[in-house]
Amino acid sequence: MANSPAHRRPSRRKARGAGIVPWLFISPWILGFLFFTLGPLMFSFIMSLYDWPVVGARTFVGLDNYTTMLRYDPQFWDSLWITVKFAALFVPLNIILSFGLAVLLNLNLRGTAIFRTAFYLPSVISGVALVTIWSWLYSKEYGLLNYMLSFAGIEGPNWLGDTGWAIFAITIASLWGLGGSMLIFLAGLQSVPKELYEAARISGVPPWAQVIHITLPMLSPMLLFTFITSIISAFQQLTIALLLTKGGPVGSTYFFAMYIYDNAFKFHDMGYAAAMSWVMFLIILVLSMLVMRWSTAWVYYEGEVKKEGGHG
Amino acid sequence: MGKALAYAALIFLSALFVAPFLWTLITAVKSQADLVAYPPVLWPADWHWENFADAWNKQPFNIFLKNSLIVVVLSTIGQLFSSSLVAFGFARFRFPGRDAIFILLLATMMIPWDVKMIPLYMEFNLLGWINTLKPLIVPAWFSEAFFVFLLRQYIMTIPMEIDEAARMDGANAWQIYWRIHLPLMAPALVLVGTFHFMNAWNDYLGPLIFLNDQSTYTLPLGLALFKGLHEVDVVSIAAITIILCLPPLALFFYAQRYIMDSALGSSVKG
């Protein structure tokens, strides 16, 4: 969108100092974008067209890396499938659970602040500490999780050692950090005008229908946001898998991102890894765009919501 | 009735979220005998606080801590400075292409780190920055899209009249930013600083890729190294894990009200 040039709206008070000054202010981002985003992005695309070992001669191979991946590399498809499975578990659960917790907190019962803190707490740690904590909880013999389950008469599985269960173990550990999404939903719930519920109650709309006809539409922008960010983080999942299961057992949690990492820094096949990272980028982009397009059917924007750049 | 049910759910669920921390803390202070006991000892009779010091001395954790502090402090300062500067630029000026550039900035949030990771490694390698802390510090001085977005939203809630008055008094753009907006932004800066601190403190992949030499390791890498070397020394690993969790937890409790009341909700509505 082009800006309204200053001469068209001479009276705008904001139309101060065009010239170089604003560019100086945003120059850190521009430089960072060139050197740490756009540059690497283009470089990575060029690399993806090469056979590019870390040391030694690089040869231009055109789209060979891409065709190899798609046609001759079963590991690529396996790791992609595992990632899709993980996303199919993580994305809906993350949305449903963080939404559910936000609804509970929004009842504003006494002590809500304490519960809110408890739910958010795990989000402030991540990576190595999170994985260390969960690796013991999951331990088959000594783990607290299976011990607790035994009280309920359930014999817990070998969480990290069973090919069927390891991906669930990673999902649960990832869901532990859903505090951020929960806060977003909570903020959304608190911004829903109380009069809407009041009016619905007076006209005899039952509570469940209020949720469907008031809460969900009002929160649809947050649902969309969480949907897309969850997809992105599901596809990028690397730290937890790298540390908790190392991709195992028998490759059952060998995520796409992990295969990229291994190709680059273990097998030193930088070109191939770069090509795979571009495939990941495209998948994320296409999925996000599909969700966005689909969302026009269900996302409801309030009339008074401020639009970007509409200020001033 | 409904209220009791809600309370039961809240108590049960919050216990699920907090229990792993408590369990780690309890593990960290256990004696060796308590550790291997089955059924697990849920509340040890003796709390061995000296386990923390013992664990700390088993690896050069002082060096890892120093590296972590250097990274976190320098990158947080850079992030606060650069992101607020850029946010001010977008919020308070009109210039050709501003809105398009801002959309581009928002779009960069969608780029997966995996795509940048490989070329960034090559770039830093070219610059001779591998095995130094620079790759973990320098990019933070060039602002981050999400933080720019948060701060810009915040600046836009501040009336233009304040800028006008300052300009009448002869203040230039830099002075308006530095003397007026930076102090006014304080709550939002606490938020950005907290988020950045947590990201930088917890970061594992960045250090994993850019640091090879143990003398440059940050704490998370140090803990992973330690975990690999002493897989069975569960008590020490738990102790280090607790230590690693403390700074973000402390910061969280300090910044809690900013996080909870922040523009998080409105930021999504755009």
Question: How does this model look, in words?
Answer:
- The complex is a heterodimer of chains A (312) and B (270).
- Helix content of chain A is 64%, strand content 1%.
- Chain A contains 13 helices and two strands.
- Chain A is globular, with a radius of gyration of 24 Å.
- Chain B is mainly α and 270 residues long.
- Chain B folds into two domains: 1-48, no CATH class; 59-231 and 240-269, MetI-like fold, CATH 1.10.3720.10.
- Chain B contains 15 helices and no strands.
- Chains A and B meet through α1, α3, α4, α5 and α8 of A and α1, α4, α5, α6 and α8 of B.
- CATH fold label of chain A: MetI-like fold
Order of helices and strands of chain A: HEEHHHHHHHHHHHH
Which fold name corresponds to the CATH topology of the largest domain in chain B? MetI-like fold
| CATH class category label of chain A | Mainly Alpha
The helical percent of chain B reads over 70%
The number of helical segments of chain A is 13
Q: Averaged pLDDT of chain A, please?
A: 84
CATH architecture classification name of chain A: Orthogonal Bundle
Tell me which protein chains meet in the greatest interface and how many residues each side has. A-B, 105 and 98 residues
Strand-residue proportion of chain B: under 5%
Number of domains of chain B: 2
The class by helix and strand makeup of chain B works out as mainly alpha
CA-CA gap between termini of chain A? 15 Å
Q: Report helical residue fraction of chain A.
A: 55-70%
Question: Could you tell me the mean pLDDT of chain B?
Answer: 88
Which features does this protein show?
heterodimer; A: 312 residues; mainly alpha; MetI-like fold; two-stranded antiparallel ribbon; 64% helix; globular; B: 270 residues; 2 domains; 0% strand; disordered C terminus
